[in-house]
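Table S2 (text version). Query chain:
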Amino acid sequence: MRRVQRRKASRAEEGLLREILEDSAQARLLNERIKAGDSDPRLPLQLGELVAAQVRERQEELAAALVRALIPLARDHSVRAPADGDLLNLSLLVPDDRRNAFVEAGADLARQADDIDFRFTGPLPPYSFV
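Corresponding structure-token output:
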């Protein structure tokens, strides 16, 4: 028998913003200019656009890595648009004989990424794959 396992993930915004400021010289420069009182009204918009693009890119990369890590254990999968601040909404059709390995893989991912909130539901009936 196969059951659906649903995985959702979201990332703490504060940690992600701190990481972007550490990694991006341009973001750091814009942030420092704003903190120093630079009156250029374009600076906050430029910083916001840069940060938004970086957030989107990093979340897409992380979601793709999570999918790649979990789908080898599934017979089929369905990726849906994330909602409510999530970066991933993934349903997987997991055979019963792979369930324990799948649960362990999910737990390993959660331990490796301490700033990501994983929400696991299932097993559920396979309605997503009808």
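Notes on Table S2: The chain has four helices and four strands. Residues 42-70 form the longest helix (29 residues).
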